[in-house]
Amino acid sequence: MARRRLPHFDVAVAVIRRRGRYLICQRRAGSHYANRWEFPGGKRRPGETWKACVHREAREELGVDVARLAWLMRISHRYPHKSVCLGVFRCAIRRGVPKPLSSNGLRWVSAEALARYPFPPANRRLIARIARAGSAML
To answer: What mean pLDDT do residues 55-63 have?
Structure first.
């Protein structure tokens, strides 16, 4: 029996660290994985580069401009209803103060505290990598 082809999404993720803490956003009620936490980011548009997507999503979700993007990792994950490929970038805020423009709220949390927040399953490898790095810069 052939497996059903799932919808696939490329998602750019921004790992923003400031003073030893990482910026996370709480997903809105009514969304997929509502009220769980995630790193800022979103779906890559057709023809859009990974970096352009990180820049666009930072403006749309947080109202900030980011700089110093550095590739961290790629994560492929299969949910029961879709598959995703996360393109994860380390970056810094160049201009602006983050605001929860498309989320319930924002928090700056330590690497150790990330494990206490419920994240969607696709984020597990990224959180484990940040935990291994500890206070060292990713």
So the answer is: 98
